[in-house]
Specification:
Oligomer: single chain
CATH topology of the largest domain: Rossmann fold
Helix content: 40-55%
CATH superfamily of the largest domain: Glycogen Phosphorylase B
Distance between the termini: 26 Å
Shape: globular
Bound molecules: ligand 26W
Length: 805
């Protein structure tokens, strides 16, 4: 039986090579082999996919639509092979054909349809939903160009387009029959129907066709295949001239340009609102398409939209899909003639919102004129929602205008998307305990006081299938040998490793695997950066988006400090260190780009300074993405999680590092707090101001960085090196000036405490056995941070889904 299946699979690859590329297996390029193999795997997936949809229909199961502008999926081939039950058959067949799976995997373009944490979380959630067997569809945008590719030229970041679809993507399937029309602009006209009832119709609009492409999400070892649906825009005339109202467009090519622009690029902004019309167009485009399609599908098997929330949940991933609230209202009121109050009840029961940031510059507030011009009818709906909500508020708090000021959806000529999402949802959640407390007590305090029942916490998680089973096969096998494989779908089982933490052989094995992973990363660095690094040094890793609040600058200042100390005192006691960075800066974020240049200047200077005898190395890994993350995370000794307390909602790389046995060096921020709670203070190193201290300083206008500078010679030396030509005559006046005038992220304030924490790390690392024990305990105690746990909480408290069976 096994052999027959293997032969079939091998034939399928060969057939694909012929039909797709007209080549035999001997002449095929690696790229063709990747594509043909992926198509063969897709065929196995499709049977399960069709079956999942059949069961879902028969069971009439409730489904969650996870609405997100970003899905940072990473490569699919390897992950699909792992999650499919046919894992062994596939890998053996590939071997028997003489092919190298690793080489093939490296051919896959990474669908990088996300910036960072928010998009990667969405991808982990889809993996967990499928693995737990819950009906779910991820809904987003099929950006033609995903996250830009980063090149470092002369130390500077250069952005190149990521043309991931150029050679086609083997796992997607276009679904023409599920296309819908989305309308922009024009005006809304009131009319009376035959019964005299007032209704509204949108006229003079510009329409585009939203066409979905479906990508399978394979559950682990359970035959469930869910869907990631990404929408593309096509001009109407191209799609079907007769079936749709053509509107009053000027000419056909204008239509096509408009359609092509909508899904052209992913905005590379993370935690920073820019307010561009095209971004709002993207938001409405995918929201409207998703909501329209969901209702049409619901009505295929149901006739009462009053019961919509029994079968559908819309989860809004941050405020980017907040328009779901208004769009659902529009459809119910305008297209299905619902009374406002009924429509509102349905909408609130169906929608739910997750907040991912408290950074004020990240909050979406659209200019009213821009909004009205693009979405006139939706704006009217929002006006009505706002009017009724403000009436509620002023009835409840007649003498307190501050309540309206804070909670109104329309205020100061802006449409406030967070307020729209909160008002229109039955559930609002934060992504870590501390973050949720800050939402309740600070940012969203008035909403919490008014509707406390809406608020809950859902601490983030990550999928162990990608970040251990796929990314770190050596450790995955070791864990399975020790405790069995139940951790793959039940990460709490990792706790059994506690029994091995004190065992010397287990410690040696664990650190040996870490060392092998360090060699794998060192080879990558040699190949890509041409830097030799010492695999016996401490690998201290800081990888995430470049943002001032994430404080890569604090890390660099400490490296400069070490460099100065080592040059001053060559014989000082020092354990060799390799500092590894990876980070993309938003293209327009000048300060972030300066910090990248600084890291590279410091790296060049240190790596070539013979006085340091190779004890200190600094590496900036270009184009940090999911694939390289898997390699980096498994090789890390120290996980840098050093955000200014209160600013990082959760962080999720902290969890990936913990799972892979790295020790957290962090502030008491986001999910770090819970990581430390799980693993114990003695197995992590913390430092810095608390979130309350930061919030208190901010309340009273900050602190005086100049006082710290004046009293600390080491800090003076570092800051002066930024501007005195020390780094190849390149000056960082922007960084220097802003730090000394207003250090918004408390870098100088936390510097000494960070230095001490780093000394503590060195001390701990020198005790090999103690370090190994802590590393094992980090892996052992990572159970809470599986996205399987997070998803189960969303299901129990918010979505109330039933498993497919
Ligand atoms: C409008 C511009 C913009 C773009 C992206 C604003 C905000 C965002 C995201 C919400 C930023 C983001 O990715 N937030 C991260 O979400 C992760 C998942 O919950 C958290 O772990 C991170 O702490 C948070 O920064």
């Amino acid at each position: 039986m096994q052999n027959i299946r293997k032969e079939q699979f091998k034939e399928s690859i060969k057939d694909n090579l012929k039909s797709l590329f007209c080549v035999s297996i001997d002449d095929a390029s690696q790229e063709q082999l990747f594509y043909a193999t992926s198509k063969a795997i897709q065929l196995i997936i499709i049977n399960k996919w069709i079956n999942t949809q059949k069961i879902q229909k028969e069971q009439d199961a409730k489904i969650v639509y996870y609405m997100s502008m970003e899905f940072l999926m990473g490569r699919a081939l390897g992950n699909n092979i792992i999650n499919l039950k046919e894992n062994e058959i596939i890998t053996e067949s590939i071997k028997e054909l003489g092919l190298d799976l690793n080489v093939m995997e490296n051919q896959e373009p990474e669908p990088a349809l996300g910036n960072g944490g928010l998009g990667r979380l969405a991808a982990c959630f889809l993996d967990s939903l499928a693995t737990l067997g819950y009906p779910a569809m991820g809904c987003g945008i099929r950006y033609k160009y995903g996250m830009f590719k980063q090149q470092i030229k002369d130390g500077f970041q250069v952005e190149l387009p990521d043309d991931w679809l150029r050679h086609g993507y083997p796992f997607e399937i276009k679904k023409n029959e599920d296309a819908v029309e989305v309308k922009f602009g024009g005006y809304s006209r009131m009319y009376r129907d035959v019964y005299g009832k007032v209704s509204f119709i949108n006229e003079g609009y510009q329409g585009v066709i939203a066409v979905p492409y479906d990508i399978p999400i394979v559950g682990y070892n359970n035959d469930v295949v869910n869907t990631l649906r990404v929408w593309d825009a096509e001009a109407i005339f191209k799609f079907d001239l007769d079936a749709f109202d053509k509107g009053n467009y000027v000419n056909a090519s204008e239509q096509e340009t408009f359609a092509n622009t909508i899904c052209s690029v992913l905005y590379p902004n993370d935690n920073n609102f820019v307010g561009k019309r095209l971004r709002l167009t993207q938001q409405y485009f995918f929201v409207s398409a998703t909501v329209q399609r969901a209702i049409k599908d619901y009505l295929k098997n149901h006739d009462d939209l009053h019961k919509l929330s029994d079968k559908i949940a819309f989860q809004m991933n941050d405020t980017h899909p907040s328009l779901s609230v208004a769009e659902l209202m529009r459809i119910l009121v305008d297209d299905y003639f619902f009374d406002w109050d009924d429509a509102w009840e349905i909408t609130q029961k169906t929608c739910a919102y997750t907040n991912h940031t408290i950074m004020s510059e990240a909050l979406e507030k659209w200019d009213v004129d821009l909004f009205k011009g693009l979405l006139p009818r939706v704006y009217e709906i929002i006006e009505e929602i706002n009017k009724r909500f403000c009436l509620d508020v002023s009835t409840k708090y007649p003498d307190d205008y501050s309540k309206i000021k804070n909670m109104a959806i329309l205020y100061d000529n802006k449409v406030r998307m967070a307020n729209l999402a909160i008002v229109g949802s039955h559930s609002v959640n934060g992504v870590a305990e501390l973050h949720t407390e800050i939402l309740k007590n600070q940012l969203l305090k008035d909403f919490y006081i008014m509707t406390p029942e809406k608020f809950s916490n859902k601490t983030n998680g990550i999928t162990q299938r990608r970040f251990l089973l796929h990314g770190n096969p050596l450790l995955a096998t070791w864990v399975t040998n020790k405790i069995g494989n139940s951790w793959i779908t039940g990460l709490q089982k990792m706790n059994k490793l506690v029994d091995y933490a004190d065992e010397i052989t287990a410690q040696n094995e664990f650190m040996d695997i870490k060392h092998k992973n360090k060699i794998r990363l060192a080879e990558y660095i040699k190949e890509h950066n041409n830097i030799d690094i010492d695999t016996n040094s401490i690998f201290d890793v800081h990888v995430k988006r470049l943002h001032e609040y994430k404080r890569q600058l604090l890390n660099v200042f400490h490296i400069m400090y070490l460099q100065n100390k080592l040059i001053e005192n060559p014989n000082m006691e020092f354990y060799p260190r390799t500092f590894i960075f990876g980070a993309k800066a938003s293209a327009g974020y000048m300060k972030a780009k300066s910090i990248i240049k600084l890291i590279n200047c410091v790296a060049d200077r240190i790596n070539s300074d013979t006085r340091l005898h190779g004890k200190l190395k600094v590496v900036f890994i270009e184009n940090y993405n999911v694939s390289i993350a898997e390699i980096i995370v498994s090789a890390a000794d120290v996980s840098e999680q050093i955000s200014t307390a209160s600013k990082e909602a959760s962080g999720t790389s902290n969890m990936k590092f913990m799972l892979n046995g790295a020790i957290t060096l962090g502030t008491m921020d986001g999910a770090n707090v819970e990581i430390i709670e799980e693993v114990g203070k003695e197995n992590a190193v913390t430092f810095g101001l608390s979130s309350q201290e930061v919030l208190d300083y901010e309340k009273y206008g900050g602190y005086f960085p100049k006082d710290i500078y004046d009293n600390d010679i080491d800090i003076q030396c570092i800051l002066n090196q930024l501007i005195n030509g020390y780094y190849y005559m390149y000056n960082f006046n922007d960084i220097y000036n802003s730090l000394l005038s207003r250090d918004d992220y408390f870098i100088l304030k936390d510097f000494r405490s960070y230095v001490e924490a780093q000394e503590q790390i060195e001390k701990l690392y020198k005790n090999k056995s103690q370090w190994a024990k802590s590393a094992i305990l980090n892996t052992a105690k990572s159970g809470k941070f599986s996205s399987d746990r997070t998803i189960q909480e969303y299901v129990d408290d918010i979505w109330h889904l039933e498993k497919l069976n």
